[in-house]
Amino acid sequence: MMVDSRTRTMAVLIVAYRSADKLNSCIASVRRYLPELEVHVWDNSGPQCSDVRRLASDVPDVHWHLHGDNIGFAAAVNRLAAMVPGQDLLLLNPDAELVGPLTHTRAAIAEGDTAAAAPMLSDDGGDEPEPSRPLSRTHQPWDVAHRRRTVLNALGEVAMAAERSRGTWLSNLYWSQPGDVDGYLTGACLAIRREAWDALGPFDEEFFLYGEEADWQRRAIAAGWRIRLADERGVRHSAQGTVAGDAKASTRSSDLVHASVALQLEYHHGAAAADLYAAGAYGIDGLKRALHRDDSRRPQSDAVLVVDGPQSPSADEIVSRATVLADEGLDVTVVSLRGLGSLPRELPPAVRLLRRSWWWPRTWPGDAPTTLLAGATGRERAAARLFRLRRRGLRVESIEPTGRPAPSRPMTTVPNLDLESI
């Protein structure tokens, strides 16, 4: 029996990141299918991009929040949700477009035990999906629904085996269309019941980008709420459409995906599971590159900086030094040995940011930086020692926290310290 959702109010929340043309199409689709709903847009594009601000002047009937700095997706959603108290939430990616009024999705969250619901993907064909077949790489409309995250199915996703092994322990995708979901629904188009949001609290802002909706739904399931896939094709979505054509932004996006999965696994299964995933993802990526003999897109680094997470005493100094080196035109990678925390907000987008365990601090297979900088904690020193193995001619500097910005210096003056000094 379908519950009448018309008695419940809902607000559409969109977190924008560049790509004003896609955002414009997204807003137009809301106006076409859900014209009665308020639309709130938070711009995370950064001060260098004015496209979204120009769009705001052309579309005045939207509530625009143009603050300039990129505070992260989770933080932006939390701020928007706080502006619409008492209303259900419809999270919509700026590179997504509605293809219907989401009748079944809204009816699902109108039922009192449902925390979140989402429509299936539309391929514009209108045909019934083909049944799943073993080893097939076909995407299914219900692939917005994911099974509970494990280390094995997370690594299967990195290996691009999710579709071919769907329904098995190597995949987080369902074999057939589910009703209730035991993992999570992707946030490209996600309806959230206000009572559940208020009961569970907002998104965890430790997730800068990706994974925040999965973590929130994990908490919902643990608290006894239902997560449901609606029986309707309601959205069209171009994955990573907002960073298409920008190599550095695409690399940062991909690295944040890995870091987010590691954090989810840490919350589910402990830090050892997160470290195992990070090392396994590195190995799988390296193997794929070797098999395809493709070095054209391999990120390289002139300098690598190792920090023991955002709470390390040397974190401010690492951020300052990485920023200076990037401003000098060098390719810089920061390796965090714990979670990322505020590092994605503090480091320039041009700086590569990875999460690694201290016992696996590598950046990329074959990467040969000329300089290594690390903090002075035991884990940072241990990671630096391991990083130096089999690397000849690597200049090394130990960074002590000073509490003030690091001065700019040419790379040629970075001292070549002995292994024992770090």
TrEMBL record:
UniProt-recorded Gene Ontology molecular function terms: glycosyltransferase activity
Statement: the UniProt record of this protein carries the keyword Cell wall biogenesis/degradation: yes
Superkingdom classification of source: Bacteria
Region feature (Disordered): 118-140, 399-422
Keywords: Cell wall biogenesis/degradation, Glycosyltransferase, Transferase
Pathway in which the depicted protein is active: Cell wall biogenesis; cell wall polysaccharide biosynthesis
GO biological process: cell wall organization
UniProt keyword annotation of Disulfide bond present: no
Transmembrane portions of the chain: none
InterPro entries according to UniProt: Nucleotide-diphossugar_trans
Family: Belongs to the glycosyltransferase 2 family.
Name of the protein in question: Glycosyl transferase
Organism of provenance: Mycolicibacterium madagascariense
Taxonomic placement: Bacteria, Bacillati, Actinomycetota, Actinomycetes, Mycobacteriales
